[in-house]
TrEMBL record:
It comes from Methylophilus aquaticus. PANTHER family: ABC TRANSPORTER ATP-BINDING PROTEIN, ABC TRANSPORTER ATP-BINDING PROTEIN NATA. Keywords: ATP-binding, Cell membrane, Membrane, Nodulation, Nucleotide-binding, Transport. It comes from the Bacteria. Residues 4-243 form the ABC transporter domain. SUPFAM superfamilies: P-loop containing nucleoside triphosphate hydrolases (SSF52540). This is ATP-binding cassette domain-containing protein.
Amino acid sequence: MIMIEAIDLSKRFEHSSLFRKTQPGRPVLDRVSLRAEDACITALLGPNGAGKTTFLRMLAGLEKPEAGSILIQGQPAHLHTAKFAYLSDGCGLYPRLTGEENIRYFGALYGLSDAHITLRIQTLDSHLGFAHVLAKKAGACSLGERMRIALARALVHDPHTLVLDEPTNGLDLASVRKLRNFLRYLASEAGGGKCILLSTHHLHEVEMIADQVIVLVQGQVKATGSVRQITVANAAQHFEDAFAALAFGETISCINVG
Ligand SMILES: Nc1ncnc2c1ncn2[C@@H]1O[C@H](COP(=O)(O)OP(=O)(O)OP(=O)(O)O)[C@@H](O)[C@H]1O
């Protein structure tokens, strides 16, 4: 089943701040249409500034589209907030609260009881491994520790649709492998067949985990399909070559051995 459907989404930022500049006249998202299905991990891939975060923020209701619409299970996105999780690119934790307080605060916002939150913390810890940082203030945590807490906080209410902006950012190899297994489990039948849409710059990650890939370049969808389909369609030997051709216009280098 199609869980997330974006239809002709467009966005242009009117003002540029000191640190972020848009090229005048160029939309950040330009009639983006895409789908992410249930029981599937969909990876959103694109160069810096392609519009990935803007698109994911739009799904989470944090940016308004200039045109187009977003449907979740065929209905407007705002009707699904209780089943929706969004992990922002900067983690978004309250630095003065401990890891546990951050998770509990969000659980309470979703109406979960203390006992239920305790159970969820135990379950999520068994997959992500963050028990040792629960008592630490989020502001004193390392990047990888913050990311684990932020993931737990985003998943505390057992959402069905997971939108994750660079979830492996700052994680060490062991944590990346744990997270990968956990996301695979969540997308599986046993894990509830969840719809997972994530952005990343790690091509290896995409090859390891993604059922579907969407390549976004300068606010436009340049390719969709599996890693294999995109590689073959671009007459490339490796997915990285296909992505470099799509994202940066690099020519495909074919190395013939023997
Ligand atoms: N609030 C904003 N105001 C003005 N411009 C913005 C704003 N947010 C994003 N942009 C611009 O929109 C473009 C897309 O940004 P976005 O963060 O969505 O890209 P991205 O694909 O997530 O990039 P990265 O891979 O570097 O994280 C960039 O040119 C950025 O400067």
